[in-house]
# Entry
Amino acid sequence: MKPGQADAFEAAAAQAVAGSRAETGVLHYDLWRETDGERRYVFNELYTDEAAIEAHRGSDHYKAFGMAARDLAAGRPEIHVLSAIDVAD
Amino acid sequence: MKPGQADAFEAAAAQAVAGSRAETGVLHYDLWRETDGERRYVFNELYTDEAAIEAHRGSDHYKAFGMAARDLAAGRPEIHVLSAIDVAD
# Structure
């Protein structure tokens, strides 16, 4: 995160979180932040299937957040793809 | 993870997940696994407060899993402490 941009980032993220949770294919869409070190933000997202991921990426709130975050973030997002082994709904 | 130990690890983890979810101070206790690369396992845990974390660490299932995982894992766990910015219950 660029210095001083946390509040703006969280405001933009709140829009993305609300919009994403309303999507039928989204099971989890949560925002966390590291408490120390680089204090990176972490989105934890769970989708019903690949089609739901595609639908999410096509959504207005996803695109709007992508543009906003580009100006606020200090670097590109790091994406880790995980499968749910034992994840509660 | 040491080669060939994924099933044993997931069996031991299932015990820890079940026991942890039964703890009053545990809100989230989920197990994920990277789909590629090192294929690391990721526990995503959310507690009500510091006392709940301490209670968790004192539990029999936590200790039992720690011993089992030590023999199965290829290295020490990497712990990232995050605060919930916008996390659904």
